[in-house]
Amino acid sequence: MKQKYLVIDLKYCHDCNNCFIACKDEHVDNAWPPYSCEQPRHGHRWMNILSVERGQAPRMDVCFLPMPCQHCANAPCVNAYPDCISRRDDGIVLIDTEKAIGKKEIVDSCPYGAIYWNEEQDVPQKCTMCAHLLDDREWEQAIPRCSHSCPTLAIQFYEMEPGEMADFVEREGLSNHRPELNCNGNVYYKNYHRFVKHFISGAILKGNDAWEDATVTLACNGETCEQKTDYFGEFKFDGLVPGEYTLSVEGKIVKSVDIAESLNVGEITF
After folding, report:
1. CA distances in angstroms from 118 to 45, 103, 130, 224, listed in the order given
2. Which pTM does this prediction carry?
3. DSSP secondary structure string for all residues of 183-213
């Protein structure tokens, strides 16, 4: 059976919060039984935007990671409370709005912090992937509101067979958020390295001028990668894990660095 997936490209998210606002628009003051109760106006972030800063000025960047419920195949919340939380055949995890009443402890069962407590309704709540829209057979083009509202198309909705999705994940280099949890969610991220890995950047000068097209090589544990400097003499190697690296320019070793975080090594002059 085809399952429902969200694929979020971190390269194109710039923290506009349209997805967050669209979620509020859909669920605040709107109950969609049996999928969800009304979402409170404040306190809940069913689409939560996480962020991380990397590097040092002036060579730094910020990565934003939209995080809804991950709709896990191995969902800790479902495993802990199977009487009131279930995962549908299409991969969507839903909380039973009646059976979960009064069970505030459910909030702590999610390692992503994606379940929120509704004090007024006395019930735990979370992203439903807008299942009430997806199940509306009169609306053939239904997609979750977060995907529908994203101006950069960073959030994409897919319906695929699991095997087809597995091929897509490998081909596109996708990752779950915090894969070490082994929750195997139906939410995937592209360019996930921008959130969890490091970069090294700098500029190569020849005298007082930027050195364009200089060959810069980065080596670590016998593996190397190479690139040319741009018009401004700048380079940036991304997706790095912590370790000891050697930086060379035109075959000449110029710097050894211990990368434990993203680094701006400044200007290197020849």
Report:
1. 12, 11, 18, 52
2. 0.94
3. --BSEEEESTHHHHSEEEEEEEEETTEE-TT
